[in-house]
Amino acid sequence: MQIGEFKNSPEAFCPYYKWIMADTFWSLIFSLMIPFMAALGNSQMTYDDANSGFIMHVLQKKGKIGYVLGSLTSVYAVTFIETVLVLAADVMFVFLLLPNVLPDQVLNSGEGYSRLFTYHVEWMYSKPFKLILFYIVLSGCAAGLFGMLTAVCGLYFSNRFTVMFSGFIIGLIFFVLANQQIVNLPSFLLVLPVMSQMYLPSLGYLAAFYLVCVALLFVFQIVGVRKHASI
């Protein structure tokens, strides 16, 4: 497409194609940044509690299960909200800059959206804003999971930088494995862009895998808390 043709095309003025998670390059960059963003909030509070000895005081007041539930749910909530607010601000900025031109399935057929790479792709042409909300929530859920992962690692590693980079390293491992189709496991970083770079797993499979990860993080958190309680 020539530059002049692009300027006159609907894609050039459609905000639904221009927000960060719909942009092929920047959506991938932002997805890879999510583990870092998740590690910068309150995700390191378990690391601080464990290394300062404050965890013993908290355990005496709340108990092991109370501490685990309180710490992981608060970390999840904060990282979820932070990510949602960042993406919501990006969407608002795009809509302030561009007119609300709705996608057209015929005119925008060259964009390449399909069920293989986009969840609820039919919403792109019938309820595009609903699709944006879906992917914002999906990104928030991924951030919450990485926040919990950072919090759990804070009980097992004594180096702060190791804790901070743990989510990114584990996420990157799944990213490579899923991208190369080495194992049949989804990568939360690859499913976040509106147009994924890989064939998407079903939402049911993704949700089941997500819940298994959450359950495992709770188990590892309980084990880590018990380890520090016995020291």
Mean of residue pLDDT? 86
Q: What is the share of helical residues?
A: 55-70%
> So what's the overall shape?
elongated
Question: Alpha-carbon distance between the termini?
Answer: 66 Å
* Main sheet: strands, sense, barrel: none
How would you summarize the topology of this molecule?
Blueprint: H1 3-7, H2 24-39, H3 45-52, H4 54-97, H5 123-126, H6 128-153, H7 160-179, H8 203-229
Helix pairs in contact: 2-4, 2-6, 2-7, 3-4, 4-6, 4-8, 6-7, 6-8
Keywords: Membrane, Transmembrane, Transmembrane helix
Transmembrane segments: 25-44, 65-98, 132-157, 164-183, 203-225
Organism: Ligilactobacillus ruminis SPM0211
What does this structure look like?
The protein has one domain. The relative contact order is 0.18. The chain contains 8 helices and no strands. The N terminus is likely disordered. The N and C termini lie far apart (66 Å). By secondary structure, it is an all-alpha fold. This is ABC superfamily ATP binding cassette transporter, membrane protein. It comes from Ligilactobacillus ruminis SPM0211. Keywords: Membrane, Transmembrane, Transmembrane helix.
